[in-house]
Amino acid sequence: MTAPIPPAGATGAEFEVIVRQIRFEADGVLSFQLERKDRSVLPPWTPGAHLEIALPSGIRRQYSLCGEVEDRTAYKVATRLVPDGRGGSREMHALRAGDVVKIVGVRNNFELLEADSYLFIAGGIGITPLLPMFRQVAAQGVSARFVYLGRNHTHMAFVDELSAIAPGVQVVQTDLAGIPCARELLADCTATAVYACGPAPLLDDLEAEAVVGLGPDQALHIERFAPVRPAVTVSDPDRKIICGRSGVTVSVQPGETYLESIRRAGIDVPSSCEMGICGTCQVTVTAGEPDHRDELLTENERRAGAFLPCVSRSLSSELTVDL
Fold first, then answer.
1. What are 33-81's pLDDT values in tens digits?
2. In a domain, 123, yes or no
3. Which residues make Cβ contacts (< 8 Å) with residue 300, sequence separation at least 6?
């Protein structure tokens, strides 16, 4: 079995950055300018990429890069405060200029593919990965439209910046105009590539409508900030994980994820979302039959052995991983 295909633009380099500037972008949304302490060049990235950040508490979270691709001296990310979330946004919003955080990865699971024309659909903070995409296609002179949905202007980050990039931007304040359905958003769509990011109901509707609303030469690409379905606690009878390089075999306990089992055996595997959408915990399966339950890996990556133990399980009684 060959090694998993790495995500496009992935880099495993770890390095510290300083929070150089924090800006208020909209109600509940802050942007952060991150630079090396010596202001030296940062690793390159492409539209759709995200940073994995290790916050001071030790938790890891992913944030889409939304700045200028050409600016190699600074990374820009933006976060919406989710008071009842898992803690990442609260910790980000508690940062102050001068604080130091660690970048533990730059990945792109949402690549901008070449197309004749584009339609971008953003809902709320879903604008962050799409903003650099729109900048790039506009700079290349490729035909593109951008529909940005939000409650109202006070809740919509980067509205002015987006509108200044190119014509073809439609800003929909749903408090005034209501929420358009997917059929309306895709009506008369001539774009060969549709890119969307935003709340789950919006993306679910677009996926369902794309089946009948888009032609064979049109493709919908989406990025989710949460899994399609919530993780379900499962008890698999008599399942074991064999960590090949370590020579450790561990039984999966009732209600335990495979990631938790591996860690209980004393093997440290980094993780972040623990929902099967970021890829931080990816390991390689070398024997056994995985039961993939993630929202990230492609079929090619799965065939090559990629496995996300935070949510995926095993159809065979034993699963061997390269740890």
1. 999 999 999 999 999 999 999 998 888 899 999 999 999 999 999 999 9
2. yes
3. 5
Indicate whether 131 pLDDT > 80: yes
User: What H or E segment, with its residue span, contains residue 211?
Assistant: helix 200-213
Query: What's the count of helices (H) and strands (E) in the chain, helices before strands?
Result: 8, 19
SS3 125: helix
Domain span at residue 250 reads 240-321
Q: Which of 90, 108, 126 is the last residue of a domain?
A: 108
- Written as six digits, the tokens of 317 are 């009684």
pLDDT digits (tens, 9 = 90+) for 177-193: 888 999 999 998 999 99
Compute the distance between CA of residue 45 and CA of residue 10 in angstroms, rounded to an integer: 9
DSSP letters of 157-205? Answer: TTHHHHHHH-S-EEEEEHHHH----HHHHHTT---SEEEEES-HHHHHH
Q: Stretch 117-139: mean pLDDT, rounded? A: 97
98/67 Cα distance (integer angstroms): 19
- The answer on 28 and 89 residing in a single domain is yes
Looking at this protein, which amino acid is placed at residue 280?
Answer: T
> Is residue 1 very low, low, confident or very high in pLDDT (cuts 50, 70, 90)?
very low
pLDDT band at 272 (very low <50, low <70, confident <90, very high): confident
Total-model pTM: 0.77
CATH number (domain holding residue 129): 3.40.50.80
Specify the number of domains making up the chain.
Answer: 3
Which residues, 6 or more positions from 75, have their beta carbon under 8 angstroms from its beta carbon? 17, 33, 34, 35, 42, 45, 51, 65, 67, 103
Local structure of 279: helix, strand or coil? coil
Question: Beta strand pairing status for 169-173 and 143-150?
Answer: parallel
